[in-house]
C-alpha cells in the first residue's frame, strides 16, 4: 500500500473518530462580582472572560431561565432581581423580590422563582412571567440558602441566625417542618434521588446530612486540614454529582474544596483553590466544577474526573455566585 493511500486512510479513520466522539462541549459561565456590581461571562472552552455586564448593587445569587435566554441576578442592595438577556448582556427588566434578595432557586418547570430575603426573614415566591408575588413565607432570621427537591414538591430555606432548615410545601407555600442544624447555615443541596439534603454550617464548621422523609439529621460531616486553623474552615457552597457518589464542599477562608464520598460521608481530600472560596457550579456535563474565590478575585476550575484544579481565571471584585449553561 502506498504512503499516500495509508495517509488518506488515516485521515478518514481520524475523521470517523471525531464524528463518533463529537465536538467538545461548550458552555458559558456567569459569575456575579459582589463589589464590582457586574457579571463576568466566561467561555469554558477557552477559559477566558469574554464580557463583563453591569448589574445592580451587590449582586450575589445568580441563575438561568430554563431556556437559557435570561439570566437572573440578585441585586441585593437594590432590593430587586435584575433579568438580563444572555444574547445582549443587557438588563431587560427587574422583578419584585422583596428586601435584600440573597439567593434563589428556580422551579424545574421554569416558574416560579423562590427568593430568600435576608433582611425580612421571609421567602418570596415570584411568578416571573407576570412579575407577580405569589406568596411571602415567614421563615427564620437571615434566610439565605435555597434548595429544591428533584420532584419540586419541597423547598428548603436555611436561616443563618435561627440555625434552621425550613421545609416548605410548594403547593401550599406553608412551612411544614423545621430541622435544627449547626451555626450559620449557608447552603442547601438535595441529592439527585431526593432522599437526602446536605446543609452547610459556616460558623459551625460542619455539613449536616438530613433524611428528607424523616426530617432529621443522620450525619454531621466535619473537616480537618493540617496547618489550617479550625476557625478558618467555614463550609458554604455544596455540589453533589448526579450519580450520588461525590460531594464537593467549599470551605471559605480555608481556601479549599473538600471532596467527600457521598455514600460513606468520609472526606477523601482537600483541593487548594483561590482565596475565600464561596460558591460552586458544575458544567452541565459535570466534567468541570467552577468555584468563586472572593478574596483572590478569581474562579478556580476543577477537573472532576482527576479532582485537580486545572485553571484559575481572573474575574471582577469579590466574585460570589456562579451559574453555567450550554452555549
From TrEMBL:
Domain YNCE-like beta-propeller: 30-102
Species of the source: Methylobacterium phyllostachyos
Heme as UniProt keyword: no
Official protein name in the record: PQQ-dependent catabolism-associated beta-propeller protein
Xref: InterPro entries: Host-pathogen_enzymatic-act, Lactonase_7-beta_prop, N2O_reductase_N, PQQ_b_propeller, WD40/YVTN_repeat-like_dom_sf, YNCE-like_beta-prop, YVTN_b-propeller_repeat
Superkingdom field: Bacteria
SUPFAM superfamilies with a match to the protein in the record: Nitrous oxide reductase, N-terminal domain (SSF50974)
UniProt keywords, alphabetically: Signal
Signal peptide residue numbers: 1-26
Amino acid at each position: 500500500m502506498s504512503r499516500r493511500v495509508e495517509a488518506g486512510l488515516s485521515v478518514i479513520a481520524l475523521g470517523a473518530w471525531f464524528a463518533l466522539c463529537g465536538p467538545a462541549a461548550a458552555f458559558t459561565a456567569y459569575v456575579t462580582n459582589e463589589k464590582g456590581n457586574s457579571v463576568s461571562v466566561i467561555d469554558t472552552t477557552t477559559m477566558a472572560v469574554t464580557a463583563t455586564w453591569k448589574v445592580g448593587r451587590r449582586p450575589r445569587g445568580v441563575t438561568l431561565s430554563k431556556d437559557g435566554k435570561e439570566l437572573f441576578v440578585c441585586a441585593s442592595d437594590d432590593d430587586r432581581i435584575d433579568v438580563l438577556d444572555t444574547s445582549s448582556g443587557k438588563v431587560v427588566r427587574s422583578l419584585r423580590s422583596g428586601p435584600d434578595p440573597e439567593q434563589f432557586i428556580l422551579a424545574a418547570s421554569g416558574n416560579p422563582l423562590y427568593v430568600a430575603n435576608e433582611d425580612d426573614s421571609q421567602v418570596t415566591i415570584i411568578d416571573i412571567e407576570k412579575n407577580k408575588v405569589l406568596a411571602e413565607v415567614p421563615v427564620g432570621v437571615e434566610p439565605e440558602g435555597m434548595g429544591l427537591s428533584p420532584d419540586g414538591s419541597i423547598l428548603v430555606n436555611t436561616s443563618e441566625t435561627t440555625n434552621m432548615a425550613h421545609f416548605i410545601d410548594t403547593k401550599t407555600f406553608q412551612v411544614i417542618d423545621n430541622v435544627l442544624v449547626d451555626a450559620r447555615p449557608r447552603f442547601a443541596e438535595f441529592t439527585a434521588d431526593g432522599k437526602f439534603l446536605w446543609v452547610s454550617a459556616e460558623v459551625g464548621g460542619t455539613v449536616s446530612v438530613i433524611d428528607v422523609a424523616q426530617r432529621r439529621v443522620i450525619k454531621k460531616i466535619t473537616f480537618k486540614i493540617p496547618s489550617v486553623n479550625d476557625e478558618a474552615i467555614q463550609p458554604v457552597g455544596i455540589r453533589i454529582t448526579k450519580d450520588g457518589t461525590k460531594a464537593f464542599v467549599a470551605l471559605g477562608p480555608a481556601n479549599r474544596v473538600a471532596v467527600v464520598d457521598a455514600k460513606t460521608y468520609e472526606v477523601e481530600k482537600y483541593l487548594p483553590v483561590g482565596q475565600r472560596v464561596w460558591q460552586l457550579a458544575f458544567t452541565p456535563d459535570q466534567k468541570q466544577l467552577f468555584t468563586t474565590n472572593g478574596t483572590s478575585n478569581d474562579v478556580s476550575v476543577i477537573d472532576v474526573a482527576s479532582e485537580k484544579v486545572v485553571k484559575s481565571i481572573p474575574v471582577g471584585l469579590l466574585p460570589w455566585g456562579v451559574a453555567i449553561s450550554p452555549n
